[in-house]
From TrEMBL:
<keyword id="KW-0732">Signal</keyword>
<dbReference type="InterPro" id="IPR003609">
    <property type="entry name" value="Pan_app"/>
</dbReference>
<dbReference type="Pfam" id="PF00024">
    <property type="entry name" value="PAN_1"/>
</dbReference>
<feature type="signal peptide">
    <location>
        <begin position="1"/>
        <end position="18"/>
    </location>
</feature>
<dbReference type="InterPro" id="IPR011042">
    <property type="entry name" value="6-blade_b-propeller_TolB-like"/>
</dbReference>
<feature type="domain" description="Apple">
    <location>
        <begin position="41"/>
        <end position="92"/>
    </location>
</feature>
<protein>
    <recommendedName>
        <fullName>Apple domain-containing protein</fullName>
    </recommendedName>
</protein>
Length: 481
């Protein structure tokens, strides 16, 4: 690479800057290169013909939005101008044309020295700043002020792009903002849609209403939703798109005989629609075979909370008051029976669990230790994969997490961070998580929860479903794929 200094006086710009010399420095690649934008339609400024590459550079210099050009990539004399940040957006690749080149505007903090200083609209110190409507120098459109490097940088033009601050790092003209989970996306992704329960957040026991929903489950093939309707002591089924639930377990009031349940926590539904219910107060797992009018007890070794099956049909249960995860009712799969603690082998009041087939491990909400533990099969040593830093609202913390779900596509860990009224997402080996939904404060509006007690993703991982216990509803959020 060599640096080609371009000093040009542009008559058009002279009209707004009588004394100005507008110069740009371009870094040129070797020949046989082209620019591949990350989002062509959002980045292309123009495609024209110029007789030389120098005239193409001149055209880029004249367009304040231009930060990248390439020349003679597809056609003789073709000059393409792009906006965007070469460091983060798109790439340079070999082209089929031997003489094609790419030029990149070289930026330095001196070019932005007057940022924030007062200005008058008829004076422009460089092509990189404009006089804003508050009469101070501001970044040009589609760029944002990066205080760390004292420069305006182009905004990111791609849905889902990683961003690191909550300000305007993403293309605001495309409706993208840097969301709390540090990806560019529309604000809409933070807004939940109620898909079960009343719209007014009160409880109800009719077909539409719910009373303190907790465990939820989605059938992978057709997105049928099952809700552990805890205070109504029943499980409701909602066909996709329907707000009218059908009772598929319990529903005749709370109690301890086999047709009733008391204080439901997690639920699990197999593909034949047999329903496993953590029937907490009755200290059992109630299995409701499809269409059955009463349940069968399949585990009864304490206050059952988390319930799940592995791919071989083994039943795992989190026993809250025994501080263990049991396999098939009487084998300890994790924790130490009747002993709570915070070491690697201990659990303290375990609740939601998730069996991850990819890693053959079980993820456990170690609720009173405010952490998520992962146990590989046949190992009694738990690995802390989220939290474990005391109860709190910090990104490295959780507060009494109750449900966990692991993506089979990305391995990301989604956590119902119950007492923080939010959903957190952690990556394996990360030291902090990001907030996917909720604000950290209890509330009733569509961006908030009041105690997140259950969560799941649909099988293609396009939606997140969350039980919003004290608002008596199940909320759905669109996920970035
Ligand atoms: C390109 O060069 C040709 C021949 O030298 C000239 O006629 C034409 O005006 C030039 N075009 C531009 C856009 O400068
Ligand atoms: C002036 O700037 C403010 C803050 O940046 C912005 O909200 C407003 O829309 C601008 N007004 C005009 C007329 O551009
Ligand atoms: C690319 O930009 C267009 C607007 O030009 C936008 O509609 C589209 O969503 C963007 N594509 C991605 C993947 O972000
Ligand atoms: C909440 O909505 C339900 C269903 O529309 C209705 O029956 C109930 O009266 C409402 N409750 C309140 C307090 O508005
Ligand atoms: C959804 O799929 C299950 C099988 O997993 C089937 O039993 C059920 O009838 C289906 N429901 C609908 C509404 O198609
Ligand atoms: C369950 O009941 C539904 C409707 O009453 C019926 O269509 C279905 O065949 C039954 N399934 C089984 C497995 O009994
Ligand atoms: C579960 O295990 C306990 C203790 O070993 C035993 O008493 C009980 O009968 C078992 N229940 C079932 C359903 O297997
Ligand atoms: C773990 O338990 C020990 C003994 O009860 C206690 O001293 C320590 O503070 C606990 N650590 C955390 C991180 O809670
Ligand atoms: C999990 O396993 C599935 C099926 O084998 C595979 O497609 C997917 O990439 C795996 N996911 C992760 C995160 O390893
Ligand atoms: C996490 O760390 C372990 C141990 O250092 C390593 O083996 C594993 O590959 C890492 N996993 C990911 C997803 O980074
Ligand atoms: C959250 O739910 C609790 C328990 O129902 C209630 O006391 C509290 O007022 C609710 N908070 C908000 C902000 O709605
Ligand atoms: C969490 C975070 O970065 N918050 C910042 C979002 O942007 C506003 C305005 O620049 C800051 O005041 C916040 O601190």
């Amino acid at each position: 690479m060599f640096i080609w200094q371009l000093f040009v006086v542009i008559s058009m710009m002279n009209e707004i800057d009588s004394q100005g010399i507008f110069h740009s420095q371009f870094v040129l690649t070797n020949s046989n290169k082209k620019y591949i934008p990350a989002n062509f339609s959002a980045q292309i400024l123009s495609i024209t013909l110029t007789n030389t590459s120098k005239l193409c550079a001149l055209a880029c210099n004249q367009n304040i939005m231009c930060s990248i050009f390439d020349y003679e990539v597809f056609m003789s004399k073709e000059c393409r101008l792009f906006e965007g940040d070469i460091d983060t957006v798109g790439s340079i690749d070999v082209s089929s044309s031997p003489q094609s080149i790419v030029g990149i505007v070289k930026l330095s903090s001196e070019l932005f020295a007057q940022y924030g200083q007062s200005c008058s609209s008829n004076h422009q110190p460089t092509r990189y700043l404009i006089c804003g409507n508050d009469s101070t120098y501001q970044c040009i459109p589609h760029s944002y002020w990066n205080a760390l490097i004292s420069m305006c940088k182009p905004q990111l033009p791609i849905l889902g792009a990683k961003c690191s601050q909550n300000t305007s790092m993403c293309r605001t003209d495309l409706n993208l903002i840097c969301l709390p989970f540090k990806q560019c996306g529309p604000y809409d992704l933070l807004i939940g849609t109620t898909i079960a329960g009343y719209d007014n957040a009160t409880n109800g026991v009719d077909a539409q209403g719910l009373g303190q929903p907790r465990g939820i489950y989605i059938l992978p093939l057709n997105n049928t939703l099952f809700v552990g309707d805890s205070n109504n002591c029943r499980v409701q089924r909602f066909d996709f798109g329907s707000r009218a639930g059908t009772t598929v377990a319990g529903g005749t009031g709370c109690g301890s005989n086999l047709v009733r349940m008391s204080r439901i926590w997690s639920i699990f539904v197999d593909n034949d629609e047999n329903i496993y219910v953590g029937d907490y107060n009755n200290e059992r797992v109630a299995l409701w075979l499809r269409n059955a009018s009463q349940s069968v007890v399949v585990a009864n070794e304490g206050k059952m909370d988390g319930v799940t099956l592995d791919q071989y049909g083994n039943l795992y249960t989190a026993v809250y008051n025994r501080h263990v995860i049991l396999r098939n009712n009487n084998t300890v799969a994790a924790g130490v029976y009747n002993v709570n603690g915070n070491s690697t082998i201990h659990l303290d009041a375990p609740r939601g669990i998730f069996f991850d087939q990819n890693t053959s491990s079980i993820f456990v909400c170690d609720t009173r230790n405010h952490r998520i533990q992962q146990f590989h099969m046949n190992s009694s040593i738990g690995i802390t994969v989220a939290g474990g830093n005391g109860a709190g609202l910090g990104p490295h913390q959780l507060d009494s997490p109750i449900a966990v779900w692991v993506s089979s596509k990305t391995g990301y860990i989604y956590i119902a961070d119950t007492n923080n009224h939010r959903v957190q997402r952690w990556k394996l080996n990360d030291t902090e998580g990001v907030t996917i939904a909720g604000t950290g404060i209890a509330g009733q509006d569509s961006t908030m929860f009041n105690a997140t007690t259950g969560l799941t993703l649909n099988s293609d991982e396009t939606y997140l479903y969350v039980s919003d216990q004290n608002n008596n509803r199940v909320q759905r959020f669109k996920l970035l794929v």
